[in-house]
Design the sequence.
């Protein structure tokens, strides 16, 4: 059994310490508040492993067997750097620091280099599943110093979620690769949530459905290809009743979405890599617009509200709901094509040699985007499928079956003022992607006309020429 250090005993840290102890591993804990650690240790006193309260960093370091492995679960950025800078002079060569926060992969990259330069190891690990996951089995995406992975792999895989016996915890590559994968996980999470919000909007504003009826729809979708944690909890959120008003909880939640940055980073990185991420982009923009509530109210007063009732526009209510389900299936395939293509491009660009099948596998349980769908994706990659999942027979067929409904929902939705940016992000992307003859010949003509940027002739490929514009 392992003995690890864990710095940062907040909600996640406390849960993860107890999870490790439950698996029989001992954890030396360090936090600013001794009472908090004491409470965690007391609560976990019957667990198999020891939960040791350390009064300071020296006590933590002295308590650990060498080479030491110290997990850090403090807020990303400044707080994490303070912990690392405090530890560096106290550690011995070969010791390991592992960051389990939502750090930006570029910072992780720099930390790996900084620590390796002084003979220490650093792992950047994305951990998904919230506090519940941290306690009972999160999904863990590690990257960084490979030599040190073997040392923490056992206890982390014990603590991680498992899918049919396979732990959802792996090391994927050097540098910031683990945190890059977690960032894209969150970008996909944003897209999935935005699609849920858009279909909820159509049901609420377009079809005039009550929250409880909408909850039943989400529950029904759990029986089909959309079966996933987020659809499951969408059903629970929609069904919940506010004890104060006796009405739906959804009706008392302010419509301003928060965000901590990982969705935005995903979009920025996708843009840098030149890989489409229209659903993540739509999701981030929708959150940005949602946050400006005052300005939306001002605009509504000036222009009138946007969503209109659209009962009948998609046929009966049952037909409309079936079309919405298919629309989400089609959009979801596009979202995952985009996500995995960003990962593939990053892998090539940064020479990470990422195993896409292994990534899909660790997302099958424990994390927020876990779904039946990810099991199908991992099968496609295991069978040698490319990052363009749309061409894998199972998803190709699914897209052919559901795209007509995605188009129908968007046409009806937009013509009734519904907000469907993520759904449209999928349709626009798919349609452009299946167009052999694009309109970029016009772009190239314009670029060459005003800037002599050259273009290739279709009858003389590989040769840069100018057009006859200024003869
Ligand atoms: C997870 C979540 C987790 C966190 C998100 C929320 O995988 O467990 O993604 O990391 O809840 O970062 O992000 P926003 O606050 O940006 O929605």
Sequence:
């Amino acid at each position: 059994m392992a003995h690890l250090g864990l710095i940062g005993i907040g909600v996640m840290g406390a849960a993860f310490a107890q999870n490790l102890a439950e698996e029989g591993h001992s954890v030396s804990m360090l936090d600013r508040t001794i009472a908090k650690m004491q409470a965690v240790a007391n609560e976990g006193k019957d667990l198999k492993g020891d939960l040791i309260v350390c009064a300071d960093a020296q006590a933590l370091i002295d308590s650990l067997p060498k080479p030491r492995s110290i997990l850090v679960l403090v807020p990303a950025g400044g707080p994490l750097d303070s912990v690392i800078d405090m530890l560096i002079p106290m550690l011995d060569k070969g010791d390991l620091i592992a960051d389990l926060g939502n750090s930006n992969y570029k910072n992780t990259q720099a930390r790996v280099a900084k620590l390796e330069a002084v003979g220490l190891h650093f792992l950047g690990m994305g951990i998904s599943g919230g506090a519940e996951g941290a306690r009972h089995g999160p999904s863990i995406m590690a990257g960084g110093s490979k030599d040190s992975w073997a040392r923490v792999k056992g206890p982390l895989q014990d603590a991680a979620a498992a899918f049919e016996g396979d732990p959802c915890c792996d090391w994927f590559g050097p540098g910031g690769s683990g945190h890059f994968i977690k960032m894209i996980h969150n970008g996909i999470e944003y897209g999935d949530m935005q699609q849920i919000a858009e279909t909820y909007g159509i049901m609420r504003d377009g079809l005039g459905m009550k929250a409880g009826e909408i909850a039943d729809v989400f529950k029904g979708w759990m029986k089909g290809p959309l079966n996933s944690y987020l659809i499951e909890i969408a059903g629970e959120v929609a069904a919940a009743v506010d004890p104060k008003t006796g009405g739906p909880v959804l009706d008392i939640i302010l419509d301003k979405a928060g965000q901590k940055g990982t969705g935005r980073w995903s979009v920025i990185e996708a843009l840098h890599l030149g890989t489409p991420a229209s659903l993540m982009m739509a999701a981030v923009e929708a959150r940005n617009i949602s946050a400006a509530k005052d300005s939306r109210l001002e605009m509504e007063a000036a222009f009138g509200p946007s969503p209109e009732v659209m009962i009948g526009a998609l046929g009966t209510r049952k037909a409309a709901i079936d079309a919405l389900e298919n629309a989400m299936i089609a959009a979801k395939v596009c979202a995952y094509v985009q996500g995995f293509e960003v990962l593939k491009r990053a892998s090539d660009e940064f020479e990470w040699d990422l195993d896409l099948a292994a990534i899909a596998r660790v997302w099958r349980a424990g994390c927020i985007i876990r779904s039946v769908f990810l099991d199908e994706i991992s099968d496609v990659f295991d069978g040698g499928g490319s990052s363009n999942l749309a061409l894998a027979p199972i998803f190709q067929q699914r897209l052919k079956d559901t795209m007509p409904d995605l188009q129908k929902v968007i046409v009806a939705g937009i013509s009734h003022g519904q907000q469907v940016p993520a759904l449209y992000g999928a349709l626009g992307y798919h349609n452009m992607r299946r167009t052999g003859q694009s309109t970029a010949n016009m772009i190239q003509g314009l670029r060459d006309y005003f800037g002599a940027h050259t273009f290739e002739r279709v009858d003389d490929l590989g040769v840069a020429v100018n057009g006859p514009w200024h003869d």
Residues 3-175 form a domain with the Rossmann fold fold (CATH 3.40.50.720). Residues 102, 128-130, 186, 189, 258-260, 262-263, 367-368 surround 6-phosphogluconic acid (CB under 6 Å). The first strand starts at residue 3 and ends at 7.
